[in-house]
Amino acid sequence: MEQLLEVNNLVTSFKTAGQKVSAVRGVSFSVNRGETLCIVGESGCGKSITTLSVMGLLPNNGEISEGSVKFNGEELTAKKKEDMRKLRGNEISMIFQEPMTALNPVFTVGYQLMEPLKIHTKLSKAEVKHKAIDLLNKVGIPNPEKRLKQHPHELSGGMRQRVMIAIALACNPSLLIADEPTTALDVTIQAQILDLIDDLKEDLGMGVVMVTHDMGVVAEVADHVMVMYAGHVVETGTVEEIFSNPSHPYTKGLLASVPNVDDANQSLEAIPGSLPNINEEIEGCRFHPRCPFATEKCKQEDPPHFSISSSHQSKCWLQEEEVTKDESYDKALS
């Protein structure tokens, strides 16, 4: 399959209070055309910072200090801001977490939807408007001519999210990044949004990177899953491997905390403790203070990534005796 995005050993750092701290630590992954990668983990694990690094949208005090981000074989970290602006919204688009803050309250829906079309295409004014109406129809918004003239506050949460999707898809991107696209939506609208993204992925042949903390969403839409903890990738695999054979204690904890509507007697298990601060350096495995299986080795040495199968890796010393070290993966991270 055609590889769209390749991220190797990504390290994203922030300058704050006179020191430099890393929020993303050696992250590597790839996305193929027509596939969905879900990035999961608790809030603060580095999921959104990873995607903002790919998009080149880090705040002024943030930078990619190490690593490579390649899109269609082109290195993005070396691109000038002007070149990245030409790429964003055109070849790579992003759906942000909260549409009420991502959409500008001052401008109409039509203005914000037609802007990327005016910037990235050579369509006439009439063609731009026709395309905008067609996009609103495609994302399931009724009476699109009327909606073009309305402001974001005049729309429901579900409609605003659909507008965000329409804006992201305006120029038929090859890669769509969705950061918690169904947060704060009721379950009915959530299902509709996920189905919509999946249908459009099939129609346009896009690659999709979806950030979420909802394992139910992962089970529904993912082809591959990347589990992050405290800036590290701790486990990767196909959605079947992650759900049927979770290998890292953190992944097991995430799955154990998901309620099962078919089991009235289920007791939910919480992961003890909390995430370390971004500037807190922990010797050994960063998860060991919260891990019920931690050994002395876990407290002293940071584990490598072990290969469970060709598509399944786990950064945990528990795998040392069961599988062989994936030398090629760790070479990429070094």
UniProtKB/TrEMBL annotation:
Where does the signal sequence lie? Answer: none
Which InterPro entries does the UniProt entry name for this protein? AAA+_ATPase, ABC_Ni/Peptide_Import, ABC_transporter-like_ATP-bd, ABC_transporter-like_CS, Oligopep_ABC_C, P-loop_NTPase
Q: Which SUPFAM superfamilies match?
A: P-loop containing nucleoside triphosphate hydrolases
Region (Disordered), start-end ranges: 302-334
Please give one Pfam family short name: oligo_HPY
Q: Which GO terms describe its molecular function?
A: ATP binding
Q: Could you tell me the keywords of this UniProt record?
A: ATP-binding, Cell membrane, Membrane, Nucleotide-binding, Transport
- Localization of this protein: Cell membrane
Report membrane topology.
Peripheral membrane protein
Residue ranges, compositional bias (Polar residues): 307-316
Q: Where is the ABC transporter domain?
A: 5-255
Q: Per the record, where are the segments of Basic and acidic residues compositional bias?
A: 325-334
Q: Which family does it belong to?
A: Belongs to the ABC transporter superfamily.
User: What name goes with this protein?
Assistant: ABC transporter ATP-binding protein
Q: Which organism is it from?
A: Halobacillus shinanisalinarum
